[in-house]
Design brief:
Rossmann fold, 9 helices, four-stranded antiparallel β-sheet, alpha/beta, 12 strands, six-stranded mixed β-sheet, about 260 residues
């Protein structure tokens, strides 16, 4: 019997509250090497809370959060950074620094020259190596998003976590970002990414974890996790999966107005 690959991230019966309100209510989640796990659900379902709990940024009132098999709350900040790279929703960059310097911030424990070399390689990976010396304040929103993705890639951690990385990007940039995340998993890393586009989630992820009201409503292969029943209960959609040129395509309509 083949050995089960150890999880890079685990949430087990995770409960958490923000401002007195529950945001996680017994959530279970895992990410293993070689897979892309897409975290889906409506706004307020608990996706970002699950990500923050897994990184140790949101304390749990009950349950466990582990990175690389160890309780995240027992790990130092440096140990967490070595195990998981994080691309948050927030894309603001306060200073008009060259893109290569912003990307190099993802490797704070490397010496200057080594960090810059790795940052240039990461910018090449996301298709904007030619903009390495341009100030981020002179870039478009999509270009800045790629710079921040490069900053996460610089870390070269076993796990990459991206919270809504394609929000607001044009279609070409969306596909490039998801291709880079897929490539990271195909090279043996683990990826956890929260997405609102269910069709793209189904095309690029190995598993979908659907969240609803702080709980996991479904976890499995994409079109199985996004069954008609889950589409109705979690997303208020009446949908069917179609075969398209590049993978499954969701055709859906809203069930209830309001």
């Amino acid at each position: 019997m083949a050995a089960v690959t150890a999880a890079l991230l685990e949430l087990e019966d995770a409960h958490a509250r923000l401002a007195g309100a529950p945001v996680l209510d017994g959530a279970d989640l895992s990410v293993r090497p070689g897979e892309v796990v897409a975290l889906c659900g409506p706004n307020g379902a608990g996706k970002s809370s699950a990500i923050r709990a897994g990184l140790g940024l949101l304390p749990l009132s009950r349950g466990a959060a582990r990175l690389g098999g160890d309780e995240v709350r027992r790990l130092s900040e440096r140990a967490r950074g070595a195990r998981a790279a994080y691309l948050p929703q927030e894309r603001s960059i306060a200073w008009n620094l060259p893109a290569v310097e912003v990307a190099a911030l993802g490797a704070p424990f490397l010496a200057g020259a080594a960090a810059l070399d790795r940052a240039r390689a990461a910018l090449d990976e996301v298709g904007i190596g030619h903009l390495a010396d341009r100030g981020v304040g002179e870039m478009s929103g999509g270009e800045r998003a790629r710079v921040l993705l490069a900053r996460a890639l610089v870390v070269d951690a076993p796990l990459l976590i991206a919270d809504e990385p394609i929000a607001g990007l044009d279609p070409d940039a969306q596909l490039l970002v998801l291709e880079r995340l897929r490539a990271r998993a195909d090279a043996g890393g683990g990826v956890l990414v929260s997405l609102h586009d269910l069709t793209l989630a189904a095309r690029y992820a190995d598993r979908l974890v659907v969240m609803s009201r702080g709980r996991v409503a479904a976890d499995g292969p994409p079109t199985e996790a996004l069954s008609p029943a889950v589409l109705r209960s979690a997303f208020n959609l009446d949908g069917v999966w179609l075969e398209a040129l590049d993978g499954p395509l969701l055709a859906a309509r809203r069930l209830h107005q309001g």
